[in-house]
Amino acid sequence: MSERGAAFFGRWITDNVMRGKVGADIVSVAELTSKLFADARAAGISEEEIEEEIGSAYEAILAAIVGSKETGKP
What we know:
The structure is a single chain. This protein is mostly helical. It contains four helices and no strands. α1 (3-18) crosses α3 and α2 packs across α4 (57-70). The longest helix has 17 residues, at 26-42. The chain is globular and about 30 Å long. 23% of the residues are buried.
């Protein structure tokens, strides 16, 4: 298990989804997933490290977007 991958994902979601203005369309989620993996690689974290802890990054990003819109958070 990679707690490091999960911690990176949590920080990344806060910085890139919760504080950003993104839509829940397929293109936005796909672009964010690509950005997540590029940022993770730059930090020395593999896609596998993230996804073994959180499951599908695409689905987790989509859930974060939908959840933030339902709670009224930006």
